[in-house]
Predict the 3D structure of the following.
Amino acid sequence: MEDSKFHHTFPVEIRFTDVDRFGHVNNTEILSFAFTN
């Protein structure tokens, strides 16, 4: 991912339990990142 394409970035630490066996972050976890940060 190139930072130059995005105007705003926010680093988020992803926990092991947030990711499924294919390496995708669960949609409900993405929402929890938005609400807690």
Observations:
- The mean pLDDT is 76.
- Helices lie at 27-36.
- The radius of gyration is 12 Å.
